[in-house]
Amino acid sequence: MSGVVEAALAELGLTVPQVVPPLAAYQPAVRSGVYVYTAGQLPMVEGKLPVTGKVGAEVTPEEAKDLARVCALNALAAVKSVIGDLDRVERVVKVVGFVASASDFTGQPAVLNGASELFGQVFGDKGVHARSAVGVAVLPLDAPVEIEIQVEVAAD
């Protein structure tokens, strides 16, 4: 049975996907005390990137915002793999997003709103977080966006 968070996702027509397998020597998420930290999550859908390239060149800002939302879903999958139930999330603490950007693109914050807005929709006040939006030259697999999150979880 899904909980409150997964019901909120379902109302948006979304589900928590399977955890994206690591591309190298790391874990998708680790827990330390009351925090879970995810590795950078790419916008993988069923094992592949739906779009590649730089935002502001091959990828529109609107497409990138949608991809940031996919990254957020993948981050939630990684968190769930560690804690079992997303209702145990007490707060989304920090979101760090990387946007592979054309040299003149400066709209990274708007792109990352795709993830931030999703966290607000499914967690309410618990989804309000600190955030960094960073433009970079290139990301793994030529992904347009990558997101990592830190969440606080209920103590065991």
From TrEMBL:
Annotated ranges, domain Endoribonuclease L-PSP/chorismate mutase-like: 7-143
Highest taxon, organism lineage: Bacteria
PANTHER family attached to this UniProt entry: ENDORIBONUCLEASE L-PSP_CHORISMATE MUTASE-LIKE DOMAIN-CONTAINING PROTEIN, ENDORIBONUCLEASE-RELATED
Protein name per the record: LysR family transcriptional regulator
Organism annotation: Streptomyces camponoticapitis
Lineage of producing organism: Bacteria, Bacillati, Actinomycetota, Actinomycetes, Kitasatosporales
